[in-house]
Design brief:
The chain is of the alpha+beta class. It contains three helices and eight strands; from the N terminus they run H-E-E-H-E-H-E-E-E-E-E. It has a five-stranded antiparallel beta sheet with strand order 7-6-5-4-8. It is found in: Cytoplasm.
């Protein structure tokens, strides 16, 4: 699935940035006619529904011409929300010390889901140290399928 999101990122990142927003990341969930293409945007001010609508209209026009995904799908443009998704190494670095929930592409020691605090990020090894109830574990960022901040209330 990385190829689809990479292609879309290349296509839309300059457009979104030209509109004054940051492209945080893309999720593509393939499920036949119920597939979802979710685009996360941010800015230094809060994202409104109107912001999402404006970006969605612009991207819809581009996708109608370029057709980066074959078949039907629903386009969703969203703010990161309170449980912000993390897509890149830089995102993990920005949120050192924060609680996260991770879902891996494949199990590691029989476990696919992890919860803990981001302890450190290694530039050299492309890994994060996740500190949880059972201690620290080093995880390869490329093996993380989905990551979100977890907010404690």
């Amino acid at each position: 699935m990385a190829r689809v999101t990479d292609k879309i990122t290349h296509l839309i990142k300059p457009v979104i940035e030209g509109m004054g927003y940051e492209l945080l990341g893309i999720e593509y969930v393939a499920s036949g006619k119920y597939s979802i293409l979710r685009i996360f945007i941010d800015t230094n001010k809060s994202i409104s529904v109107n912001d999402c609508e404006i970006v969605s209209r612009q991207l819809s026009s581009i996708f109608d011409i370029e057709e980066p995904i074959s078949g039907q799908y629903n386009l969703e443009v969203s703010s990161p929300g309170i449980e912000r998704p993390l897509f890149h190494k830089g995102h993990y670095q920005c949120f050192l010390g924060f609680n996260v929930k991770l879902h891996m592409f494949r199990p590691i020691s029989g476990q696919s889901n992890f919860f803990g605090v981001i302890g450190s990020v290694s530039e050299i090894n492309n890994t994060i140290e996740l500190v949880g109830e059972l201690g620290a574990i080093i995880l390869d960022i490329d093996l993380i399928k989905k990551a979100n901040l977890v907010v404690d209330f």
